[in-house]
Amino acid sequence: MKVLALNSSPRIKGQSKTEIMLSSLVDGMEKAGAQVEVVNLRTKTVKNCIGCYTCWTKSPGRCVHRDDMAEELFPKFIEADIAVFATPLYHFTMNATMKAFIERTLPAIEPYLRVKGETTYHPLRGRHPAVVVLSVAGFPEISVFDQLSSHMRFMYSRGLIGEIYRPAAEAMVQASYAGVRDDILDAVRVAGTELVKTMKISKETMDRITQPLGDKTAMTRAANIFWKTCIREKITPEEMRSKGVVPRPETVDDFVLLMKMAFKAENASGMNATIQFDFTGDESGSCSLAVSGNGIEGSMGPSPRADLVVRTPFEVWMDIITNRADGQKLFTEGKYQAEGDLALLTKFKDLFGR
Predict the structure, then answer these.
(1) pLDDT > 90? residue 159
(2) Which residues neighbour 345 within 8 Å (Cβ) at sequence distance 6 or greater?
(3) Which CATH superfamily is domain 2-210 in?
């Protein structure tokens, strides 16, 4: 079986959640014996369809353009048994790159009108691959894919053999969601295998792919903190990641939330400790973080059994965790105080660092 997997994400490896999902799908397909070719459309020249109908009249089945689409991609598309359309969700549908590709597949159909029931359609010129659509979105609701799904179902009808949609995809790279993310990606691999073997995806597999990644309210709050930081620092999300800029909490409650999301359980093996923070200043209050190799619990208010108590102005500690200040230097200068197991201070970046 030949599979042509088309990735229309403009992002490069490591940034693209579309590519992360597609890689798992391809892995499953290849393990099932399929011959898969992945094409990153950002590297190809695909001109817009100009609606001239040359491909229907002067040169039936061949586009007037002479670009990568006509010379390379369309022939591979026609020869494929399955075509995977992998696109990030832009304005609740496919992005322009994928739309341009699909519009350029017009030579695959003939101009004649056929009627079936109440529907008028163009017949296929010859063979056409079965279609799988894969898309990701930052929004947490699966319903954001409704318009894309409706469009693809109308266009490909029974030729659409699989739809893989992953909401809240931007959060998939967060350490706190690693367990769920790994299960989602494993399910996508299973979907790839199922598509090659049965030309469909089981409900059980789809349920795993679309399972909630985390608490919707917490994810929304974290996203807003992230965007506020980008705007304040005048940087793009990618610049934020490449420069190691850390989202800055504005409240004690936000601090607890982000620490829970940034926690690295693998660095807390054998640990069972509680760190309490007593914040002063314009933003004041107490909170505690109970950490272990099994996870983290965060709560507002003091802890009855804190192993380490940090007393600090809120802004001072925010400067430390966002890498704007040297925590050890500020401790030496008396800018904040700590009582209890001071070794936990030295482990803080390992437990919560990027």
Answers:
(1) yes
(2) 308, 310, 327, 331, 338
(3) Flavodoxin domain (3.40.50.360)
